[in-house]
Amino acid sequence: MEPVLQVALDFMHKKRALEIAAEAVKGGADWIEAGTPLIKSEGSDVIRELKKNFPGHTIIADMKTMDVGATEVEIASKAGADIVSILGLADDSTIEEAVTSAMQYGSKIMIDLIGVSDRVERSKTAEKLGVSYICLHIGIDQQMKGESSPIDILKQIVSEVSIPVAVAGGITQITAPELLDAGASIIIAGGSIIKAKDVCSATENMKTAMATHKAVASNVAKKYGSDELYEAFSLASTANISDAMHRTGVLSGIIPRNKPGTKMIGRALTVQTVNGDWAKPVEAIDQAEKGDVLVIDVGGGDIAVFGALAAWSCISKGIKGVVIDGAIRDMDEIYEMGFPAFSRYSVPNASEPKGYGGIGHNILCGGLTIKPGDWIIGDDCGVVVVPQEKATEIANRSVDVAERENRIREEIKKGSTLSKVLELEKWEQVH
Ligand SMILES: O=C([C@H](O)CO)[C@H](O)[C@H](O)COP(=O)(O)O
């Protein structure tokens, strides 16, 4: 079978999905998938609309059925689906029922291996049960933690079954060629196409990558590993990061004191002191590693513990910035030197270096606990903290938020509004 590009529409809204599907079809998409969130928000009607709008294209209903296989396949097939996805985790009886129902309504079954532990064995069983396609799938939530499609398992599945094997899960114009080389017949792409500012070009680029077996450069939907977090956080704003953390992580009352556009990214070196005592903050500078951010807990004190000479010392050491739950001084000089600084207060007066407190233990700043090594990101909106144990996942989710906003921005710029693009009134929470 010729390699197929299946574009997955994982939106909540039918109108946006249909518009983006039209752009993807223009760019050469072969198959169009009604994604699971789309079907769950709009119902099977969206499958009907896709069939009506793109009659020459194979329509996939990503039902991810887990039970009542026959009924769900009947619903999707009657709405126009040519292929219906059933979870590999479902009981054999559900898969058998789905296959029988698909034969009755003229559709086919694709088994989705998301969450399956022995994917090779399950693929062999699924083929025996009569399914037409296998889909090796790394879910979006798994991708955020750094998982990607395992080439070795793909190769094993391809060698063990005779039906076409699809791959899904964060596939980009860079990764598609190696998956085809490993034997995949169907490339399922969601984010790398539907989050692109220009969906038509992104689809064309994916088709080129598939036809030539050569990567085409693209940054959309790239996933970042634990050694690439600086790069990832540099692509997201503090607002994006807070959204990715379900609107948490914000240091309350900590205000940027920088030139507009200043961004700070680094790992926390925590310091605790008392009001006006600048000994530990200044000693911490000598203990810091390049790339650290000093985070100073002064319990909200209003006498300065940090000033311009400390800031110059930080620059000498390669420290990325300072965050103070208390007061800073010499802001005119610090502003001019471009050293990122965030604090609760800016005042002229300091006190004596007495030496209370400590360096490198858990502290409170802006109402949140900060641990040494947590990621600290600051920009014109304020400061957020990302716990180090969740940093890879939050970095990827933050970039995802930024990319989805980039796409929405393009739609607004064509003359629409945020409310219209998101169909806000229709989707308000029911109270
Ligand atoms: O099936 C999918 C996911 O479970 C949400 O419904 C996606 O369509 C699939 O993963 C493809 O999307 P990307 O991973 O963004 O390429």
TrEMBL record:
EC top class, as a word: lyase
Pfam families on file: OMPdecase (PF00215), RraA-like (PF03737)
Keyword Lyase: yes
Xref: InterPro entries: 3-hexulose-6-phosphate_synth, Aldolase_TIM, Bifunct_HPS/DMK_prd, HPS/KGPDC, OMPdeCOase_dom, RibuloseP-bd_barrel, RraA/RraA-like, RraA/RraA-like_sf
EC number: 4.1.2.43
Biological process according to GO: 'de novo' pyrimidine nucleobase biosynthetic process; L-ascorbic acid catabolic process
Keyword entries, A-Z: Carbohydrate metabolism, Lyase
SMART domains xrefs: OMPdecase
UniProt-recorded Gene Ontology molecular function terms: 3-dehydro-L-gulonate-6-phosphate decarboxylase activity; hexulose-6-phosphate synthase activity; orotidine-5'-phosphate decarboxylase activity
Ranges where the Orotidine 5'-phosphate decarboxylase domain occurs: 4-206
Catalysed transformations (reactions): D-ribulose 5-phosphate + formaldehyde = D-arabino-hex-3-ulose 6-phosphate
Protein family per UniProt: Belongs to the HPS/KGPDC family. HPS subfamily.
Protein name (Swiss-Prot/TrEMBL): 3-hexulose-6-phosphate synthase
Organism the protein comes from: Methanomassiliicoccus intestinalis (strain Issoire-Mx1)
